[in-house]
């Protein structure tokens, strides 16, 4: 059965893709609603069924529906299922009115009452569905349509055409928190077959995922083969990573310390190294320049055509592989660095602002120190000429250092609003105005969730390493990091995993959405954690981003492998409680790890959803580049594995200044003053190194 999925530039389309592929046994074609192919004669007749995705905006606007309206009007016999905006489009094309709903519902769970026929055959009454909409079909519906389901607030949740094979649902059957999504899609496919028995069959091979799939890599970006196995020396104790970095790398112009300063959690290992080995190099990139600057350790810089993704793709293997020699960690050399937020211009977003820092810097290391905090051991890993000599010399230096110990507890940030407000790029009044504008755009149906941020600028610290030491004591985090990258130094206390790709090709993201301040009073602290976990606002925030991450992984993962093994649990840090979920999927055999990173970037927890339209809103509200903040940081290994954090709780030193970004997700239940207070709470963390 050949199926077309029309993408209204939404961030949940590939959740529908996965649902359809499982139900039909074949992957649907995907076309964006402005794809010229939709304007061709007979564009829809080539398919046995068409599914129209959700999306931002109003079905009467050409910008929001693209070529889809005309295509649907010219193919009345083709069975169609419309979801959310797709449902509203069917109502609009039948002459019905679509207007603001009595109350906007984003990430809202409703009970569905239905007529038991068609899409709802065999489905129980009052099943749970997830709603993401500000607009709704006005009643009464036009005579051509019949309402088949309602929510408890009386809003039409489904409709069918009385004469044509067309059905629509206002809710999102693809959401992780809904029920019977697979049953509903299976019912639609049955109805499609019954209404059009001679329809085109599926192609023998899996259909292309054209419109919303990751951008195709340049033809010259062929992946690299895995390198030779490294030489490894093991020390039977965990060295003090602070002392090791200070002794070996503090004076290196390009060095890293991927620091599990909060051990016992998801990050068991710390990694230290620099770009000084015989194979070392530094890749520096700015969007729009069309080339990467490559600076080898032993030669002059050169320009290499393409994007940073092309450059990394050429240097890294196409498929993850286990680490050599049974090592317990995946990073045995490769690239360490960051992707800045403005790299979104190479990932489907616009180039709205220019960052003073490079949009990406990645250093290649072929010699590193890995510390296993769980097993109390240290590994020296080296490749290339002189590997044995380096390992022996480094072992002697580390042996002279004191054993590792937990860093003494730091002081949690104590600065109040009055201390931070003079540092703000946008004033309190400006930020509150922007939150209100976000709320207006949410009510209009332009977005479900908008991750608004602000920036602060303080004087640069006199000593970057001393600043980072204080930060890791005050705010220990599983994905903490210190990156020395020439003129830019990144001090991060991030608690959030953007994307991990393991040797088994399983990709994992751990989005954080929902924050509550800690309290010195145990009872109050426990109450705040519980309220965070059960609160309607924070659960809606988290759900919307979980569904977005499922979509992003669904673009590059095998059908049926994307799941949410842990949904909305709390993690507590020195200053805040956070609401976290875990999303996983297994990469398709034809997906390069770098392509997977590109497909998911920027992290949805820093944009909101739908991602592209929401980034446009953010670009208009925020009057400067986010830079390193809101991007991703970590490693891409020679084994094809990766582990990247979301760049939050981070201070970036460039020149004489220290830049800090902070913000939060604006949703329908947001209160502007509370959003402002949350932004200041988060900003205080990276400034605690000062």
From TrEMBL:
CDD domains on file: GATase1_Anthranilate_Synthase (cd01743)
InterPro entries xrefs: ADC_synth_comp_1, ADC_synthase, Anth_synth_I-like, Anth_synth_I_N, Chorismate_C, Class_I_gatase-like, GATASE, TrpG/PapA_dom
Superkingdom of the organism of origin: Bacteria
Protein name: aminodeoxychorismate synthase
Family: In the C-terminal section; belongs to the anthranilate synthase component I family.
Biological source species: Streptomonospora salina
Domain Chorismate-utilising enzyme C-terminal, residue spans: 428-682
Molecular function GO terms recorded: 4-amino-4-deoxychorismate synthase activity
Major enzyme class: transferase
Keywords per UniProt: Aminotransferase, Glutamine amidotransferase, Transferase
Pfam families for the chain: Anth_synt_I_N (PF04715), Chorismate_bind (PF00425), GATase (PF00117)
Protein's GO biological process: 4-aminobenzoate biosynthetic process; folic acid-containing compound biosynthetic process; L-tryptophan biosynthetic process
GO cellular component, one term: cytoplasm
Domain Glutamine amidotransferase: 4-189
């Amino acid at each position: 059965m050949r199926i077309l999925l029309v993408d209204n530039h939404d961030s949940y389309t590939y959740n529908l893709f996965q649902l359809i592929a499982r139900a039909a046994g074949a992957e649907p074609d995907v076309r964006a609603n402005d794809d010229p192919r939709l304007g061709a004669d007979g564009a829809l007749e080539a398919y046995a069924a068409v599914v129209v995705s959700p999306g931002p905006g109003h079905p009467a606007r050409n910008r929001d529906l693209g070529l889809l309206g005309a295509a649907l009007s010219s193919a009345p016999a083709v069975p169609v299922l419309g979801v959310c905006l797709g449902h509203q489009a069917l109502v609009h094309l039948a002459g019905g009115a679509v207007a603001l709903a009595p109350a906007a519902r984003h990430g809202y769970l409703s009970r569905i009452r239905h007529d038991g026929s068609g899409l709802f055959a065999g489905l129980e009454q009052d099943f749970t569905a997830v709603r993401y909409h500000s607009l709704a079909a006005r009643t009464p519906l036009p005579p051509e349509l019949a309402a088949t389901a309602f929510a408890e607030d009386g809003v039409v949740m489904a409709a069918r055409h009385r004469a044509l094979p067309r059905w629509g649902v206002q809710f999102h059957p693809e959401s992780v928190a809904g029920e019977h999504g697979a049953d509903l899609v299976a019912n639609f496919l049955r109805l499609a077959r019954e209404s059009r028995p001679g329809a085109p069959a599926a192609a023998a091979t899996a259909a292309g995922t054209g419109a919303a799939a990751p951008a195709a890599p340049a033809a010259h970006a062929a992946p690299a083969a895995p390198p030779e196995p490294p030489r490894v020396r093991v020390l039977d104790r965990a060295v003090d990573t602070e002392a090791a970095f200070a002794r070996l790398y503090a004076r290196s112009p390009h060095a890293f310390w991927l620091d599990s300063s909060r051990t016992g959690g998801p990050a068991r290992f710390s990694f230290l190294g620099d770009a000084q080995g015989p194979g070392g190099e530094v890749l520096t990139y700015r969007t729009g320049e069309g080339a990467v600057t490559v600076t080898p350790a032993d030669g002059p810089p050169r320009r290499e055509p393409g994007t940073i993704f092309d450059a990394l793709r050429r240097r890294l293997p196409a498929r993850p592989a286990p680490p050599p020699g049974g090592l317990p960690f995946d990073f045995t050399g490769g690239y360490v660095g960051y992707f800045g937020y403005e790299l979104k211009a190479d990932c489907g977003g616009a180039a709205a602002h220019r960052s003073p820092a490079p949009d990406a810097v990645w250093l290649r290391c072929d010699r590193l120190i890995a510390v296993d905090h769980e097993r109390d051991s240290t590994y020296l890993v080296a490749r290339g000429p002189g590997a044995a000599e380096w390992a022996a010399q480094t072992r002697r230096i580390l042996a002279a250092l004191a054993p590792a110990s937990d860093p003494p507890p730091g002081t949690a940030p104590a600065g109040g609003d009055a201390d931070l407000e003079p540092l703000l790029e946008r004033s309190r009044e400006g930020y509150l105005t922007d939150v209100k504008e976000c709320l207006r755009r949410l009510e209009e149906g332009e977005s479900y969730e908008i991750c608004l941020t602000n920036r602060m600028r303080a004087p640069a610290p006199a000593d970057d390493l001393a600043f980072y030491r204080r930060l890791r004591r005050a705010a220990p985090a599983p994905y903490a990091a210190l990156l020395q990258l020439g003129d830019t130094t990144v001090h991060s206390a991030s608690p959030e995993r953007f994307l991990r790709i393991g040797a088994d090709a399983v990709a994992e993201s751990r989005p954080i959405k929902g924050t509550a301040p800690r309290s010195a009073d145990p009872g109050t602290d426990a109450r705040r954690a519980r309220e965070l976990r059960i609160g309607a606002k924070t659960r809606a925030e988290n759900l919307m981003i979980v569904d977005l991450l499922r979509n992003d992984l669904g673009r590059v993962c095998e059908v049926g492998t994307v799941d949410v093994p842990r949904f909305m649990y709390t993690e507590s840090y020195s200053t805040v409680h956070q609401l976290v979920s875990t999303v996983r999927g297994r990469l398709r055999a034809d997906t390069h790890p770098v392509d997977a990173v590109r497909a998911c970037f920027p992290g949805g927890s820093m944009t909101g959803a739908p991602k592209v339209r929401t980034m446009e809103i953010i670009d208009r509200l925020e009057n400067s580049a986010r830079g390193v903040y809101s991007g991703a940081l970590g490693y891409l290994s020679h084994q094809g594995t990766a582990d990247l954090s979301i760049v939050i709780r981070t201070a970036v030193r460039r020149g004489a200044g220290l830049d800090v970004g902070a913000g939060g997700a604006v949703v329908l239940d947001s209160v502007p003053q509370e959003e402002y207070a949350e932004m200041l709470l988060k900003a205080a963390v990276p400034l605690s190194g000062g």
